[in-house]
Amino acid sequence: MSAADQAATHRQAQGSASTEALLDALRSLLGDAALLLPTGPDDAEFTRYQTDWRGRYQGHALAIVRPASTDEVAQTVRLCAQHGVSIVPQGGHTGLVGGGVPDASGQQIVLSLQRMDRILAVDVTNLSMTVQAGCLLAHVQAAADAAGLLFPLSLASEGSCTIGGNLATNAGGTQVLRYGTARELCLGLEAVTAQGEVWHGLKSLRKDNTGYDLRNLLIGSEGTLGVITAASLRLYPRPASRTAALVACETLEQCLALLARARAVLDAQLTGFEAMHRRPVALTLRHLPDQARAARRWMASAEGDTEQATVPPWTVLIDAASMASAAQVQQSLEQVLVEAMAAGEAQQACLAQSQDQYQAMWALREAIPLAEKAEGQMVKHDIGVPTSQIPAFVGQAEAALQQAFPGCSTVCFGHLGDGNLHFNVQGPRSQSDRDFLVQHEHAVNRIVYDIAQALGGTISAEHGIGQLKQQELAQRQPAVGTHWMRAIKLALDPAGTLNPGRLVP
Ligand SMILES: Cc1cc2nc3c(=O)[nH]c(=O)nc-3n(C[C@H](O)[C@H](O)[C@H](O)COP(=O)(O)OP(=O)(O)OC[C@H]3O[C@@H](n4cnc5c(N)ncnc54)[C@H](O)[C@@H]3O)c2cc1C
Fold first, then answer.
1. 0.85 cut: is pTM over it?
2. Where are the alpha helices (DSSP H) in 410-477?
3. Residue 34 has what DSSP assignment?
4. Largest Cα–Cα distance in the chain?
5. What is the 59 CA–ligand 1 centroid distance (Å)?
6. Confidence band of 307 (pLDDT split at 50, 70, 90)
7. Would you call 363 helix, strand, or coil by DSSP?
8. How far is the CA of 319 from the centre of ligand 1 (A)?
9. Of the residues 70, 157, 460, which should be mutated to test ligand 1's pocket, given the most ligand atoms within 8 Å of the CB?
10. CA dist., res. 234 & res. 71, Å (int)
């Protein structure tokens, strides 16, 4: 054996001795039940933590740890930092950009916050709630509701995602128009630093002008600057009534005229304005007919092949909530619909007449990601542009994609009221989805992102950067932005303990 080989073997032996020492220390800190080690390739429980929701990223972790308290998180981070082992924080594992998946080295620890799922306090007078980071979003909403209040963050993944993950990704969802993103809904945070210290920023204040905003630095940092262990959240009075309508429009310009009208009539009662192009509605009708019953109800002729013929070009879902009576909010929304039809901005409209119909309308919208998944693999985008530029974006992107990849198709839907669209591209039928993705993802991204950027937009309006868009961000953001992000990462986590290789190149 050469001297170099001997040195390498020695390093490997040292490495594995150090790894064993770390695992022993974690075991005695957390107990056997909170430390998962892989038992083999068929270990389904372990694999679940290493594979993302879309099945696109598959990593290999050294171990999964599931601490039960902030102190255990801090001690875990300290131990990992001492042994030079990096950590991937993980919440509900519903992220769509591979940010919570370990790399392929088998050397990273996944730190799951799942066991830290307690509601710590609800302050009705202060309109705030303090929760542990591993609380499911749906549980946070339910706890607010039980106190007669509203926590308005709302995503299709709310039964699985955690509040820590929502804040780490600055999640958006369906009520941003009225209440803002996760950032606007957070009053304070508690987090563990990359060195294993606890930052106590769990304040429940509306006003706090004491220098750099560390809370906002952590929000949207995707687990690269600190592990969020608890959050203080902003609550709202719970609306007394809620209603929704489905509206058929011919063009995106009509959808935007409808948005302006809905804003003018409903003002703060307007809580959601979602648009669905023809294809995502058709896919939902095909793959998830039960969830698409609201669409079937108002598209009288939607039997048989619904792909092109009967689904309107654009379906808009308008959501309105109010402290006034159900009759009053219904009346206001009806006024929007009547005026829009008279002005030629809408071709058809249907107002929910019951709670069941209201839920069916939202079920249609929320089923789209699942219908897409059933349809096949796509090149996914989550772009944002100023709302006024949406028609230009869709028109230019469709044309450029058809020119580059004749026969490709798009699935376009999303939070139109926020200027945020999911614009997903599927290859021509002549090619398998997988081949199209492997061969053309980069070129498709370039087309879509170039157009979004030229229109003053962003490559990620809500899902974040993770692994998926890291290079894209580095190439597209101004050099000063990249420099500042690197400087912040280096200052707070010089050893690269927290989620290395994600977000910041
Ligand atoms: C069907 C479906 C619909 C969706 N709809 C929306 C939508 O409308 N709007 C939207 O914004 N997103 C949406 N998403 C994406 C996803 O649900 C959000 O990004 C969500 O906020 C992720 O939360 P999570 O707990 O699952 O985080 P994870 O997926 O576990 O992690 C996401 C990122 O946050 C980091 N992280 C997680 N927990 C912590 C913590 N405690 N401290 C520090 N870092 C942490 C991870 O390292 C990772 O980088 C959707 C996803 C699905 C599957």
1. yes
2. 433-454, 470-476
3. G
4. 86
5. 17
6. very low
7. helix
8. 24
9. 157
10. 25
